[in-house]
Amino acid sequence: MATEKATTAKKPVATLKKAEEAKTPIEKTLEKAEVKKTAVKKTVAKKTAAVKKAAPAKSTKKADAKITLQFSGKNYSTDDLLKIAKDVWVYDFGKKESELKDVELYVKPEEYKVYYVFNKEFAGDFLI
Q: Which residues pair with 75 in a beta bridge?
């Protein structure tokens, strides 16, 4: 069994030089621009990788705020006021809690009232 080796043809150096000389100035300029473009891409990739490594991880969790309204010996947290507002929505309006999409509450302790706007269309107040 005879195995034949594949022959690889090498271009003589003289042929390569002739091909290089035959190029127009525009082709030469385009080649230089391509080389610069490749170098810029590599530099940008290295810097981007370095920035990604150095950048601290961002937290997507929002900060929780606990607000308590105190007046006339009473305490109401934001959760308490929101629960009362949801009860008004369910029991006074006869709606499902899942239908409540937007709640705006305005507290006026001097009047002992909380004014509300539900889903930007239902407005009213309740006593606290």
A: 70
